[in-house]
Amino acid sequence: MSLNCGIVGLPNVGKSTLFNALIQKAGAEVANYPFCTIEPNAGRIAVPDPRLDQILRLSKSPRATPTFLEFVDIAGLVKGASKGEGLGNQFLANIREVDAIVHVLRCFEDDNILHSEVNIDPVRDAEVVGTELLLADLESLERRIEPIGKKARGGDKDAKARLAAVEPILEALREGRSARTVPVPPEHRREVRNLQLLTTKPVLYACNVDEGAAADGNTHTQAVARLAEAEGAESVIISAKIEAEVAQLTDETERREFLETLGLEETGLARVISAGYRLLNLITFFTTGPKETRAWTVVEGSKAPRAAGAIHTDFERGFICAETISFEDFVTQGGEQGAREAGKMRQEGRDYVVRDGDVILFRFNV
End-to-end alpha-carbon separation of the chain, Å? Predict the structure, then answer.
């Protein structure tokens, strides 16, 4: 599976600059005026994972294939988007299609770059976008609640289940709280997913700073971190300008040295990916063999047959067992053969919950 993140924010906060840096090519036009991005741009990038290279070296596979992360650069939003202002209707339609929201917030001062508000206040900007998403969800549910209620009162079992799922969320929205703040019982999760609400999507706040604040942040990023903690969201510090410069460096040593001069151990991209994985409860497992070493992504808590299905549906349908080695044991024992000889390979059945870093060989029969 690939992670799909929509990059959103007010106009001129650095969304397209960040997007271009992330996909390492000028795929989205960058300009100093509102609504530069009209049609959403999408790009897939490889998820950096040093474990993949370690497994490749030990397995002596001819190539490595990473898992991928997809970013979608969505048009800038303004107040009134829920009522169709600016490109509001298009913005809301595009954001419904993504799995998570990367909300870029401007956390730097620069008089040469226009801003849709009179001053720099990322918390206010976050609330502008959050409010528009909340209002869109509120309008959507209020249109649905009456016909659902009528069917429920008429004895329709499906409608009763839908009503039980909708009512607490509608109450939260009316109180100004997002849908993701409402605990959803397991029996209602499918109903809630089918509602396609904007405020159920997990949010990562990306604090776009200047070069001087890339390592430690500033007062703006501190305020955003407090907001994220209060909302149960994530926040990362990233400099779109630095990421654009790093993207131009093709030599890994040059990249590392450039980052070190700025006091950075890793790129902002790596931080965004790590935060995105935590946000969506994703883990990575690996397969390796004479043809290829490959990384795969599944939701944390997935059982072995579902992980097999991430490779091919036939693997899940005909699942027999999963021959599993932890990443640590794979490296410590010098690869698959050493792990086998040391008794570190386990045969796991249908109920095995895949762990992050597992190196797996699936046995199946179809």
Answer: 22
